[in-house]
Amino acid sequence: MKITQIFKIYWPDNGGGIAKVMESIAEGCKDWEQEIIVCQDSWKKKGAFDSCNGVFVRRCRQLFEIVSTPVSMQFLRDVWRRTKDADIVLYHFPYPMADLAVLLGMYSGRLVVWWHCGFEKYEKLAWLYLPLVRHTLRKADCILVSSRGNIDNSDVLRQFRKKCRVIPFCVSEECLQRGLAHRSREELRQQADKKSIPIRILFIGRLVWYKGCDVLLRAFARMKTKDCRLVLVGSGPLEQDLKRLAASLELRHVRFAGMVSEEEKMRQLETCDFFVLPSVSKAEAFAVVQLEAMAFGKPVINTRLNSGVPYVSVDGVTGKTVKPGSVRELAQAMDELATDGKLRREYGANALRIVQEEYTQEKMTQRYREVFGEILKRSRQESVRNRQNGEEYEDCI
C-alpha cells in the first residue's frame, strides 16, 4: 500500500504543527510505501528530491508566493504524476494549490482531507476560495479533524459532518518520556520551600496576530502578583512590535527568547510553573504546544475559542479557560495560578494523566490507521462490485 501526503511545506523548511502531524503519520506508517509532495520555501530554490526521517520527499519549485501560498505549476504536475500508484492521498488543509489539483482531477487514490484550520485570516478572499474548498470536501472520502469543536464551530464542516472523523493530535514519545521524568523529580522536591523563587510563566509559538501575545503582555502588566517572570519563546512578524509594547508598559521581567532548539524548548517547559496560550482567533485550531506543556505536568491557561483549543486543556480540570482578548480575565487567571501552588499541582497532575490516556503517539497512530484501513476496505469492496457488475453486463450482451 502507498500513502502520499501533500501540503505546501515540510521540514526542515518549517511547516509548524502541520509538519509535526505529517511526521507523526510517516512514523506510524513505516510499513507502507510513502511519499510527501510539498513546495520549496523560496522561489530561488529548484525542485528537488530528498529524504526526511526515511520518507521520500518531493520539493516542488514555486513561481512566487501570495497570501502565504506558494504558487507552483510543478506541484500540480507532480501530484498528477506521482499519485498514480497511491492508495491514499492525504491532503493537509489548507493549501489552495492542492484544492486546485483536486478540482482538475490531478490525483489518484482515495482522498483524505485533514482539516487543520479554517481560513479566517483571509476573510476578504473567502468568497473566492470557498467554492474550491466545498468541491474538495465533496470529493473527499473522509475528513479528519483534531477535535469535535472544529466541526461544531465551522459552517463549512457542519455540511460534511457525516464524513468527519475526530483524531486528536499527540505529543512525541520523546516529549512524554521527558515530561514523565521531570514530573518524578518534581514530586521528590515537593517539600522544598519555593516561596522565594519567582513564578515562571511561559508562552511558546509564532509571534503572529492570532496568538494574542499583545493581550498576554497587557495582562502580565496588570497582574497583582509581582514576583513573576514571563518568557516568550518563538519569533515572527510581530516580534519588534511586541518588544516595543513591553517597553511602553515598562515590563522589566519579560524575556523574548526567540527561536530555540527542541532541547531548549523542553528545558523551558521543565522550568516554567504554568503555560499560557492567549490566542484570539479560531485560526488557532488545536495547538499541540498545549499537549507538550501538559506532558510536563504544567497547568495551561487557554482561551474560549470556537475551535478545538478549549477541548485540549479543559477549564477547571487541567487549567483555566478565559475569554479571548480579555486582558482582565487573563490577568486574573494568571494571578490565581501564580498564588496557588496546590491548584497548580492538581491541574498539572490531571494534565499529565490525560495526555497519557488520550494523546500519545500510539493512540493517534491506532486511530488514523483504523480510518485508512476502513477506507481501503471500502475501496476493495467497490472494486469487486464494479468488476461483478461489468461481468454481468458482458453476460447480458
Q: What is shown here, in short?
A:
The chain has 397 residues and is α/β, with parallel strands linked by helices. Helix content is 45%, strand content 19%. It is globular and about 85 Å long.
How would you portray this structure in words?
The chain is globular. An 8-stranded mixed sheet has the order 3-4-2-1-7-8-9-10, with helices on both faces. It has a 6-stranded parallel sheet with strand order 13-12-11-14-15-16, sandwiched between helices. A two-stranded antiparallel sheet has the order 5-6. It contains 15 helices and 16 strands. It has helices at residues 16-28, 73-82, 96-103, 126-139, 148-152, 155-158, 173-188, 213-222, 239-248, 262-271, 288-295, 309-312, 327-339, 341-358, 361-396; strands at residues 2-6, 33-39, 48-52, 55-60, 64-66, 69-71, 88-93, 110-115, 142-145, 164-166, 199-204, 228-233, 254-258, 274-276, 300-303, 319-322. With 397 residues, it is of the alpha/beta class. Helices cover 45% and strands 19% of the residues.
Which properties best describe this structure?
single chain; 397 residues; alpha/beta; eight-stranded mixed beta sheet; six-stranded parallel beta sheet; 19% strand
Count of alpha/pi helices: 15
Q: How far is it from the N-terminal to the C-terminal residue, by CA?
A: 36 Å
- Assign an overall shape: globular
| Largest beta-sheet details | 8 strands, mixed
> Mean pLDDT, nearest integer?
91
The whole-angstrom Rg is 23 Å
Structural classification: alpha/beta
Outline the low-pLDDT stretches. Answer: none
Strand order of the largest sheet: 3-4-2-1-7-8-9-10
**Helix content range:** 40-55%
Instruction: Name the beta content range.
Output: 15-25%
The tally of beta strands, per DSSP, is 16
